[in-house]
């Protein structure tokens, strides 16, 4: 599952993330967006930090969980259900973090701990 990739492809979220961080970023330049120190590599730490910001930005009810209604414009129900491992209808930060880690490992094809 590539929930994070889907999220990053969303212009809506990239735009809101840009405004959150005041970054001068263009939609679609996901890797650049994630590369906190600008060295051309995205480490797990950089990735996690960015995803923390993203989580907070998407949690419009600020209850520490993502309900499907908060992210339904860019994540399908199937993907949401897969990430919602305890099937309670919302993604806790823990469930989100597990998905973030899975996506990072999936994207890190040569397993060197960084995306480039
Ligand atoms: Ca970096
Ligand atoms: Ca929420
Ligand atoms: Ca859940």
TrEMBL record:
Signal peptide: none annotated. InterPro entries: EF-hand-dom_pair, EF_Hand_1_Ca_BS, EF_hand_dom. It comes from the Bacteria. Residues 22-57 form the EF-hand domain. This is EF-hand domain-containing protein. It comes from Aliisedimentitalea scapharcae.
